[in-house]
């Protein structure tokens, strides 16, 4: 299901229905013309990510793959996500581990065509941290506590931390965090380069970033993200191909002509 174009001030809010007896939907989605805000919505569980949340994220990805928009991910209340749902994890066995239930969803989020912005506050632990790592841009409130304590629960961080955390903060720092289960404060996360800013209102800042993205040519933004996600050895070829497509586009001619006309006034 996809949304129709809307004015930026005319959001549509949708609730993905919970199927495991909870009163609230696990994910709320607010659709604007150029962005979607997805709010993890399990307040009584510190927004712990359960299977219903994963299913809702897959549904949202299916929409955004067909109709690309910037995605802002945040959490209801004081926390982003306190982790994966431990009650569910305790009951899973080897077969479920091999399915990579959370990893598959987070990889799909990471690969979305347009930028993904994580607006973080409070706990972003375990699976919550790994969902944040799947974003392209992370901003946080001063209350942030982020990290991967999975080894203390007898498991590994298997939903993307070992893939993306070394790319974000470097191998040595990632190894130290993942092997010790240490949690970072907002200030530490900023110093490590895990987040790009600390603000009292991360959701408002996420919208400000989305506003800047919305002023750019969408295809150029998408191609930039594609290059960023391409291995370095393959980038020279893909850069040439994508730039060639943009050079012949109507958007490039229109935007450059408008720039030159403004310059001569």
From TrEMBL:
Superkingdom in the source lineage: Bacteria
Kindly list the biological process annotations in GO that this record carries.
fatty acid beta-oxidation
Tell me if Secreted is a UniProt keyword of this record. Answer: no
Q: Name one GO molecular function term.
A: isomerase activity
Query: Mind listing the UniProt keywords for this protein, alphabetically?
Result: Isomerase
Keyword Isomerase attached: yes
InterPro entries per UniProt:
ClpP/crotonase-like_dom_sf, Enoyl-CoA_hydra/iso
Q: Which Pfam families match?
A: ECH_1 (PF00378)
Name assigned to this protein: Enoyl-CoA hydratase/isomerase family protein
User: Which species?
Assistant: Microbacterium mitrae
């Amino acid at each position: 299901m996809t949304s129709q174009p809307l004015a930026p001030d005319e959001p549509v809010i949708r609730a993905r229905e919970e199927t495991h007896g909870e009163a609230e939907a696990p994910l709320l989605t607010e659709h604007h013309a150029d962005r979607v805000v997805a709010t993890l919505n399990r307040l009584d569980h510190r927004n712990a990510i359960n299977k219903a949340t994963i299913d809702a994220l897959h549904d949202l990805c299916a929409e955004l793959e067909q109709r690309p928009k910037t995605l802002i991910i945040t959490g209801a209340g004081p926390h982003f996500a306190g982790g994966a749902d431990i009650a569910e994890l305790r009951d899973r066995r080897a077969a479920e581990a091999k399915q990579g239930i959370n990893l598959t969803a987070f990889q799909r989020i990471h690969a979305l065509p347009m930028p993904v912005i994580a607006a973080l506050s409070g706990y972003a632990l375990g699976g919550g941290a790994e969902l944040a790592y799947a974003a392209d841009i992370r901003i946080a409130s001063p209350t942030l506590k982020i990290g991967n304590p999975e080894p203390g629960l007898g498991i590994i961080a298997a939903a993307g931390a070992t893939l993306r955390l070394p790319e974000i903060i470097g191998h040595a720092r990632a190894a130290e965090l993942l092997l010790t289960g240490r949690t970072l404060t907002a200030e530490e996360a900023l110093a490590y380069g895990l987040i790009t800013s600390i603000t009292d209102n991360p959701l408002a800042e996420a919208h400000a970033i989305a506003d800047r993205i919305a002023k750019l040519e969408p295809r150029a933004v998408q191609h930039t993200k594609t290059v960023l996600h391409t291995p370095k050895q393959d980038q020279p070829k893909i850069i040439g191909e994508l730039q060639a497509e943009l050079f012949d586009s109507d958007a490039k001619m229109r935007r450059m002509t408008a720039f030159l006309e403004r310059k001569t006034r």
